[in-house]
Amino acid sequence: MKNAAAKNLDKVGLDTLETISKAEKFNQWMYSTIRPFIKGSVLELGCGIGNITDFLIKDFSEITLSDYNPEYCNIIREKYKFQNNIKEILQIDLQDPLFIEKYKVYKHSFDTIILLNVIEHLKDDN
Fold first, then answer.
1. Could you tell me if 75 and 6 are in contact, meaning their C-beta atoms sit under 8 angstroms apart?
2. Three-state SS for 125?
3. Strands (E), the chain
4. What is the mean pLDDT of residues 44-55?
């Protein structure tokens, strides 16, 4: 799934996501640990190239996907363009200094918000 624009933007990140995408049992295990707690409309923050999204699509009827990286958003738009249960694909930056104001419209829009392999990449996880 090499994407030249994304590779130029974040080569290490894209290479890592592509490597993890091949670890099917690992992805299944991560999803299975959170699956019992997911319900209703779902927002996946930091969806990357869709390693966990594939599982969400099978189980939920209303999914919104997001990533800070516009190229990852483009990759998932293309990858999931025929999925009717994907409501929206957003570019959300958790480290945006205006995060609370900028994204307040989404505050009560979802039943479940998930972040896997995201927090450890933030400069300030508070």
1. yes
2. coil
3. 42-45, 63-67, 86-91, 112-115
4. 92
Spatial CA neighbour of 44 closest among 103, 112, 119, 97: 112
In angstroms, the CA 38 to CA 40 distance is: 7
Bridge partners, residue 63, by sequence: 42, 86
- Which residues are CB-neighbours of 96 under 8 A, at least 6 positions away? 102, 103
Q: And the tokens for 50?
A: 């869709």
Banded model confidence at residue 112, pLDDT cuts 50, 70, 90: very high
Contact in structure between 50 and 67 (CB atoms under 8 Å)? no
Q: What is the pTM of this model?
A: 0.79
Mean pLDDT score, 108-126: 75
Nearest CA among 79, 110, 80 for reference residue 92: 110
pLDDT for 31 beyond 90 = yes
